[in-house]
Write a structure and sequence with these properties.
Two copies of one chain form a homodimer.
Chain A: H1 2-10, H2 16-28, H3 30-39, H4 68-81, E1 95-98, H5 112-127, H6 137-142, H7 145-151, H8 153-164, H9 169-182, E2 184-185, E3 190-191, H10 198-209, E4 213-221, H11 222-233, E5 240-252, E6 255-266, H12 272-280, E7 287-291, H13 298-305, E8 312-317, H14 333-341, E9 344-347, H15 348-351
Chain lengths: 365, 365
Amino acid sequence: MKNLHNSISAFGGSHEFANKRSKALINKYAISIFLLATALGYSAGRPVLSPRAQTGRVDPLPSWNDGATKRGIIDFVTRVTREGGPDFVPVADRIATLDNDGTLWVEKPAPVEAYFVFARVHELAARDPSLKDRQPFKAALEGDMAYFREAGKKAFLDLFTATETGMDQERFAAEARQFIEKWRNPKLDRLFTEIVYQPMIELLAYLRRNSFQTWICSGGTIDFVRVFAPQIYGIPIDQIIGSELKLESRTEGGRLVVWRLPEIETINDKGGKPVGIDRHIGKRPIFVAGNVLSGGDIAMMEYSKGRKGPSFQLLINHDDAAREFAYAEKDNASLNAAKKYGFTVANIKSDWKTVFGPGQASSIK
Amino acid sequence: MKNLHNSISAFGGSHEFANKRSKALINKYAISIFLLATALGYSAGRPVLSPRAQTGRVDPLPSWNDGATKRGIIDFVTRVTREGGPDFVPVADRIATLDNDGTLWVEKPAPVEAYFVFARVHELAARDPSLKDRQPFKAALEGDMAYFREAGKKAFLDLFTATETGMDQERFAAEARQFIEKWRNPKLDRLFTEIVYQPMIELLAYLRRNSFQTWICSGGTIDFVRVFAPQIYGIPIDQIIGSELKLESRTEGGRLVVWRLPEIETINDKGGKPVGIDRHIGKRPIFVAGNVLSGGDIAMMEYSKGRKGPSFQLLINHDDAAREFAYAEKDNASLNAAKKYGFTVANIKSDWKTVFGPGQASSIK
């Protein structure tokens, strides 16, 4: 690991060369990234205009088609905010938690953080050519899927920890910001931050106008999401929940920093989501949103459903290959759970009038 | 563990008997609680009147004596909130983190959570008499200090996990609330929630009026602090950082709950504090407060000091045996660090006009 750490420490400045090369490779070997994504336990999004205050007379969700889903959302928000009504929920309990990948922004062909890991491997290899001969870097650089299929989850996790750890939090944020400002979704050919779902941006703004706290509860790592969520969703970094690395306080150059250790502490997916919510918020959310991919949001929805009093669970179903991506679960677990527990399903094809908004210029460019 | 778990599950309702007996024992064996506290890595506080908005003309810190400390605090807050000034800090970065035990409320003769653990042992033993013959419960019930001295930290941790885990988060909160509403500090003979420091309550209110977020960063467990902090400090439960247990999602009686496993995941003390702050807030605090006891707040102060731009570190020194408790560190680490890094020391004897406020009725009674 010594070389790699040196390599990480040494890296900085221009990464244009690696950038161009890895972009080509990523397009070619998207499947290996997908596998990596699976190993990391991920679940899909686009950058956004700051939500503006709207009056009650304006349609709060103009990118949603009229129908049961949109009416269900508006009816719920109206009920829980009606003072004196039977379903009134005090402001302090108006907690919404929303998944990120596949719920707020696009997660196909692969989750954005997987592209970040891949980009970092190429950056590291540009600094330390010996990585080209060492697994799992070699396989990643060559797009050798067979290697990853055989080596299993651990190889992907090794790639993850090698690229995202061994530096302090401030350095990591700078690296992630560089990535997010330059790299594009290979299929949609836009900055990742420019392909967030307009209907969900409207929903976030609508919830906040009604005094909801809108938290992100992502399978991605908390520190990665923090880099873009404030700018594209208007969500402060202390309202982000995600997977977490082991961290430690360390003095570097006479200054106390928080250091990223090469070990994953929590995976914020499936049963990990209620735990993450409890840890950061301490209350069951009354509104949750997630999506169909891997069953990753079912536990969060059950947790919300289990609160005493009204709650609403929104499950986004990616069924629109023409406008975005269409994908389902082999075991249909999320849609089955929606039927069993009464979650509301939003089918992109029929429920979303528009998928991506008109003004796609990123505010973090 | 089976019996203990059954015992925990079976416990509920009246605990008056155990309450009276253990109160006597606690007074008698305060030292064993102190040891327990040490094992848990703790660092002192009184319940509070909700801070009221005050105008700029009113002294914002009336319980503080005029002097360098008070002037330093007011000067700092004035500088960082002066728009257009050289030290102006935007609202989003006005993060304050404050230790709890010894900083906001009293931590002597022992930290409040140690009393809670002790009280729980007596409750459990009332339901399951077999505990009287099993260590470390036997020693705890009998106040057998020798046992704990010999068995070391592990025995205390066993007591902690046995009393605070094996239940879901909602059940734990109910147990902790029962305790906090009934038990009293044996030396001061008041509810714990009635012996918080009035000068610090004024400081919290002053910071908030100046658009600071006021977070607790405690060595105590996050879930215990959540039970009283909103009512006595006006701090919402999602702005509390503390030591954390391992948790898992679990279905109990058909309902998804977050279950407390008998394992400590993070100790939010010393180097753990910057990690906890990074995890929950994601920014270096510009204002921190801690106290002299065990050096537990030095790292948090260094972390704050390390931010680019202005910051303020307040170290409370308990030197007033007449009005509260006087205690120091053997190695003088906190006061030495204050000198080295330029933290501001508040000596209770000279800096605090009053220690406890006039209206000590708890709002959570």
